[in-house]
């Protein structure tokens, strides 16, 4: 196996960011700058669904502080051994002694992000630092460099070896964000090496995704969720390092998502493809013909974010249309509705056996708001208002103990709305010219 042990010369050219470096987020261009204001389009979006941009931004800020951060102040952070366990009782006591890399990497990212973007409070940096230490001290398999999937709370007992590649992806995400807080460049070395380790597995014709979300699949099965989760870690890493290998892995993920998993005939993303990157035939069963609306809408906005990083207008617009079609194909009306998955592409949404999940609405709002920022498309404004209104009829269904989708929506929407307010509601100049 070929391993990446050092950063490329591109990082040296960046001056090896100091701890006081500019803190980057989602939506920047290739030079890590926000896009400007269009000089040709003078229309403005001052409100969405009767709420001003400032009201929406302040709403998200309050929810982040008063609902999400306040809840995590009651438990979930292991101040004794380091790390995060998103399962605790009303007294703040953990209900399990097991730690999963699936949550540890996410937690490192969430609390590093909160520190970097929302107040730089020492408590959040300390929580991130303790998690960083635990991961580095106990959670890496020496023979492969892969990350242990499950381990005891004190780090002394390995419960499950490195089977879950998604945990490795979140380690990349966490190390990249923690680096922005501290300037520890060794973490970028490890993040890049981790990315290559993931790539070695997911492109292998023998790889079966065993125990990664489900029991496993035929060797060589391709999964939409794999590419989009990997891309979500590679894009911020590429913004920081401009590493060529990371760039190429991100390009592979985009191509697989947009050229292979998306089916023009039905206007949907197939969740599963066979070892030749072809949709499974109907006789393979409905499970392998599945359409995940959640992974679909995430794929769309993550490809849009990568397009913003690259300055690729064509990619952005194609991903935008794929997300719009996902709304059209997968939205079920009614109180028990929302963004619904399909059992197979020919199915009518009314007959879907899927149940709504509020986490999908988090990602749907990120997609719609990113679309508004750069296009002001009336359909995007309509969908954001529709989704926001539907979601907050039952806000208790959001997973506020979660360490990815819900906080990520709060982070992203605050940042997007801040940029829109700074432009006085005018569209960005990304698609100009």
Describe the 3D structure:
The protein is mainly α. The chain has helices at residues 9-13, 53-72, 101-117, 122-138, 165-182, 186-202, 224-241, 244-261, 293-310, 313-330, 358-375, 378-391, 405-422; strands spanning 47-48, 51-52, 98-100, 150-152, 158-160, 222-223, 262-263, 268-269, 272-273, 331-332, 338-339. A three-stranded antiparallel sheet has the order 3-4-5. A two-stranded antiparallel ribbon has the order 1-2. Helix 2 runs antiparallel to helix 13 and helix 9 (293-310) packs parallel to helix 11 (358-375). The protein is globular and about 60 Å long. The protein starts with 8 loop residues before the first helix and ends in an 11-residue tail after the last helix.
Mean pLDDT: 91
**Alpha-carbon distance between the termini?**
44 Å
Major β-sheet profile: 3 strands, antiparallel
Strand order of the largest sheet: 3-4-5
| Low confidence ranges | 1-21
Q: Would you tell me the structural class of the helices and strands?
A: mainly alpha
Query: What integer value in Å does the Rg equal?
Result: 21 Å
Tell the overall outline.
globular
Strand content: 5-15%
Order of helices and strands: HEEHEHHEEHHEHHEEEHHEEHHH
User: Helix count, per DSSP?
Assistant: 13
Helix proportion: 40-55%
Question: Based on DSSP secondary structure assignment, what is the total number of beta strands?
Answer: 11
SSE topology sketch:
Layout: H1 9-13, E1 47-48, E2 51-52, H2 53-72, E3 98-100, H3 101-117, H4 122-138, E4 150-152, E5 158-160, H5 165-182, H6 186-202, E6 222-223, H7 224-241, H8 244-261, E7 262-263, E8 268-269, E9 272-273, H9 293-310, H10 313-330, E10 331-332, E11 338-339, H11 358-375, H12 378-391, H13 405-422
Helix pairs in contact: 2-13, 3-4, 3-5, 5-6, 5-7, 6-7, 7-8, 7-9, 9-10, 9-11, 11-12, 11-13
């Amino acid at each position: 196996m070929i391993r990446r042990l050092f950063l490329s010369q591109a990082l040296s050219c960046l001056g090896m960011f100091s701890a006081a470096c500019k803190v980057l987020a989602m939506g920047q261009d290739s030079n890590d700058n926000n896009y400007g204001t269009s000089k040709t389009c003078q229309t403005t979006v001052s409100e969405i669904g009767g709420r001003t941009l400032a009201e929406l931004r302040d709403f998200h800020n309050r929810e982040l502080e008063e609902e999400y951060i306040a809840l995590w102040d009651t438990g979930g952070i292991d101040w004794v051994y380091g790390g995060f366990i998103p399962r605790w009782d009303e007294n703040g006591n953990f209900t399990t002694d097991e730690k999963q890399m699936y949550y540890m990497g996410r937690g490192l990212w969430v609390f590093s992000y909160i520190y970097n973007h929302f107040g730089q409070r020492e408590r959040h940096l300390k929580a991130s630092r303790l998690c960083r230490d635990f991961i580095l001290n106990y959670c890496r398999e020496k023979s492969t460099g892969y990350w242990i999937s499950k381990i005891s709370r004190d780090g002394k007992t390995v419960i499950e070896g490195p089977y879950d590649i998604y945990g490795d992806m979140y380690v990349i995400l966490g190390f990249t964000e923690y680096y922005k807080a501290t300037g520890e460049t060794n973490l970028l070395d490890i993040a890049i090496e981790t990315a290559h380790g993931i790539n070695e597995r997911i492109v292998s014709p023998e790889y079966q995704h065993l125990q990664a979300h489900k029991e496993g699949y035929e060797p060589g099965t391709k999964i939409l969720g794999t590419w989009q989760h990997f891309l979500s870690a590679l894009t911020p890493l590429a913004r920081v390092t401009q590493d060529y290998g990371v760039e190429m892995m991100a390009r592979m993920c985009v191509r697989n998502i947009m050229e292979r998993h998306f089916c023009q005939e039905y206007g949907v993303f197939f969740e599963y493809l066979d070892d030749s990157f072809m949709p499974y035939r109907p006789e393979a069963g409905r499970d392998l013909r599945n359409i995940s609306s959640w992974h679909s809408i995430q794929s769309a906005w993550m490809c849009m974010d990568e397009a913003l990083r690259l300055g690729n207008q064509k990619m952005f617009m194609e991903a935008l249309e794929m997300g719009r079609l996902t709304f059209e194909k997968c939205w079920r009306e009614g109180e028990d509705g929302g963004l619904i998955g399909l059992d197979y592409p020919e199915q009518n949404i009314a007959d879907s056996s899927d149940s709504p999940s509020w986490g999908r609405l988090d990602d749907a709002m990120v997609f719609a708001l990113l679309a508004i920022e750069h296009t002001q498309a009336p359909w995007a404004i309509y969908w954001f208002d529709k989704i926001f209104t539907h979601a907050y009829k039952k806000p208790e269904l959001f997973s506020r103990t979660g360490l990815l989708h819900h906080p990520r929506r709060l982070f992203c929407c605050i940042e997007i709305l801040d940029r829109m307010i700074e432009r006085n509601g005018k569209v960005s100049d990304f698609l100009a010219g």
